[in-house]
Amino acid sequence: MKSYNVDQFKGITVAMYSCYDEKGEVSTEAAKKLARHYASIGVNGLYVGGSSGEGMLQSVEERKQTLEAVMEEVGREMTIIAHVGAPSTRDSVELSKHAEQVGAHAISAVPSIYYRLSPQSVKHHWQQMIDSTSLPFIIYHIPQTTGFQLSKALLTKMAAQDKVIGVKISAESTFELQQFKAAGGEDFLVFNGPDEQYLAGRSIGADGGIGGTYGVMPELFMKIEKCYVEGKMEEARSWQFIVNDLIAELLAFPSLYGACKAILKLRGLDTGEARLPFLPVPEADMGRLESINKKIITYISQAQD
Ligand SMILES: CC(=O)N[C@H](C=O)[C@@H](O)[C@H](O)[C@H](O)CO
Ligand SMILES: CC(=O)C(=O)O
């Protein structure tokens, strides 16, 4: 049994999008407003500075500022996971210590990126972060972007530590998800990564999900979760299909993050543009984006009926 309260991480965790001002600088004001918005609709947790949060495109200082703003605003009401992974172990450890100082509930990290690393190097990289704080640690497995294939053997070794409470798995294999859950044991948390497979992941053993597109429609993922918990599988499935059609439309823009952030802006939640190399929504596509936004809003109101 883990000595940490793992239940607080279950359910829907929004991977927060980056928050910038009109000049492209980190905006703590926008981060607070966005975090407050999620708290107000009853989202369980936030994942800060991950893929959707563009942590890899930000300086260590910018990442600290963002996390501090989120903690200040909602740290007492929501479960906050700080993504502290950076290419260098040094920066990752600095971010880990900072996350503990400001009261985050857990730290999480991808393997170091760019270099092709041995499993021993990745294990050591993660271990330095783990040993630098008393916070629980969540592995972030996203091989399609990092290139690192986390083996069941390494996962099992990591999960044996009390502090390693879970893995967020963004690989699209639900087989791998199930195998990781089995390897980690009953109270080892597995978070579904691909939003398109939330229900599939949940059905095969995931304890909850952490996702980027949740950010523009958390209510719909909360609805899928509710239907699943109540055993209404057909209804859960029909909501997942609705969500998937929306995600397919969002993926057709030059950048998914750019499109989602533009949707938030249409709703009065201005988080600035995604940072380059992520492209903004082309002017010519704004009409299409507006109609997707309207569709999402309609579904959200139906989900709440
Ligand atoms: C690479 C990436 O951003 N992955 C996210 C987290 O796993 C997902 O939430 C996706 O954004 C989502 O599933 C859309 O494909
Ligand atoms: C964790 C995740 O889904 C993201 O960072 O986008």
TrEMBL record:
Extract the InterPro entries matched here.
Answer: Aldolase_TIM, DapA-like
Give UniProt keywords alphabetically. Lyase
Q: Which SMART domains match?
A: DHDPS
Its domain of life reads Bacteria
Q: Which GO terms describe its molecular function?
A: lyase activity
- Which family, according to UniProt? Belongs to the DapA family.
Protein name according to UniProt: N-acetylneuraminate lyase
